[in-house]
Every structure is written in C-alpha cells, then in structure tokens.
Amino acid sequence: FLDYGKGPNSTPLIAGSRLFVATFTGQFAALDRNSGKMLWSKELWKELGGTFRDVGYSNSPIAVGELVIAPVGGQGKGVIALRQSDGGVAWQKTNLANAMSSPILIQVDGKDQLVVFMVDGVAGLDPKTGDQLWLHPHKTDYDVNAATPVWYPEHKTLVISSAYSSGARAIQLTPQGPKELWFNRRLRVHHGNLLRIGDHVYASSGDFGPAPLTAVHIPTGKIAWQERKFSKANLIYCDGKVIVLDEDGNLALASLSPAGLKVISEAQPLTKLAWTPPT
C-alpha cells in the first residue's frame, strides 16, 4: 500500500569503504563503495518489526564510530545500531514509534548524544548503548515528524518543527533534563529542512497552502521575517551563501540574514516536484 511513489526518500551514507542505503520499502543494505557489491542487508519492517509508514521508509542513517544507526520503531527496538562490518545488531533500544526524521549527533557538556525525532517527540540516546537519556513530547496529526532537528550548540538548544496542527519548539538541554524555551505555530516545517545560520533558523513554513520562507530567532522564538518568493523549499548553506531548491523546481543562489532574503541568481532546471535538498 505504498501509494506515494517508488523513489527513495532516504539519503545514502558513505562511511569509509562502505555505502549504506535505505530503500523506500524498508530494505537497509551495506554495499562496497568501489564495486557496488552488497555486503549485507536487513529488512527494517518485516525482519526487524519496525513501524510501517505508507509514505515509505524516509530516515537517513548515521555513522557513529564502527556503528551505523537508524530509527526503526517499535517496543524495545525504536532505534537500532548495526555493526558496519557485518550488519550484526550492536544494540536495539527505546519503545518509540518511528516518524520520518533522520537522527543527528550532538555534544552536550563534552558527551555525545544521538538525537532522534520520533512519533511521540524528540529524544536523546547514548550512541554507544542506545539507552534513552531524555524525551520531550511533540505530537502532530498523522504522526508526521519529518524535518531533521537543528542543534544550536552555543545555547545547548534543539529546534524541532512539524506541520499540520503543530509548530516549532526550542528545547534547551540542561543537567536537570530538557527545558522548553518556546513554542511557535508560525514555523511549521512539513517535509523540508531547517537551516541554522548564527542564532537564526530558516525554513519554509506550511503544509498544503502557502509556505513562506521564515526566519526565527532561536533564543526567543520571535519571527524576524517571512517571504513568499519561493514555494516550499529546501536549503543548503555553502561558502557564506544559500542554495535554494523549491518544490516547483526553481533553483536559486541567495543570502539569508536576520534582515531578509536576497536572491543573487536563479533558474528553473526541474519541471516536476522537487522535495529533496540539492546536492
């Protein structure tokens, strides 16, 4: 019942001599980077009992040391760490159902944490053991938490955002646990990405209507500006500028600042829906 296309939703991962891929139908495989030969594979839904999503498996894996880690979802197996060498399970922990967001690795007070944005909210795990360190709730309609969290290390703050009936939260990680700094419904990221530059985060806000590019001050949650120049877009920061690709296929080079958006150049190389960050 996968009714939302056939192409992959997940970004491949290169780690040393290996290439790790997760397919639309929940196949997870390690390939030899040079020859393309399959080294090992796992089935995330049937074999490992992960959370089935009718939009396809959408999480991108992350490499941590000799492990490759991916959200799977389910009782006692919400997130799984596999050995890169042979695909053996190093750990499988948490009871969280899988959404569609990709994990990130952060450092808090000198210690690594794996951050996963799942159906019930955002959680921090010990990347070596999988033990859950904290959980902050963030529920949305249809269990769609798709955007990857953004880390603001200067304030030890995570920013997460979802569309539909939700919004954005800033969560500060303190020794006493996660502390919510603000919640703002005017930043609702559907399935694109958030980009942090300095103390502001930039993203397209909206689901099925207009999705203006929005700038938010991370410490306060205040909206700096909103601009409807582009339809729903993904953003890549490069050499002090931003590459913008919107869902209508418009590609632009721009600068983003708290003062506003400045488009340097633009073209339209694509004619069909574009829902991926440019590479």
Strand-residue proportion = over 45%
Low-confidence stretches: none
Overall geometric form: globular
Helices, by number, come to 0
- Structure classification: mainly beta
Termini gap: 30 Å
Radius of gyration using CA atoms only: 18 Å
Helicity, in percent? under 10%
- Can you count the beta strands? 24
As laid out across the biggest beta sheet, the strand order is 1-2-3-4
Report mean pLDDT, rounded to a whole number: 95
What summary fits the major beta sheet? Answer: 4 strands, antiparallel
Summarize the model shown.
The protein is mostly beta strands. The protein is 0% helix and 46% strand. The protein has strands at residues 13-15, 18-22, 27-32, 38-43, 62-64, 67-71, 79-83, 89-93, 104-108, 111-117, 121-125, 132-137, 150-152, 157-161, 168-174, 177-184, 195-197, 200-204, 213-217, 223-227, 233-238, 241-246, 251-257, 260-267.
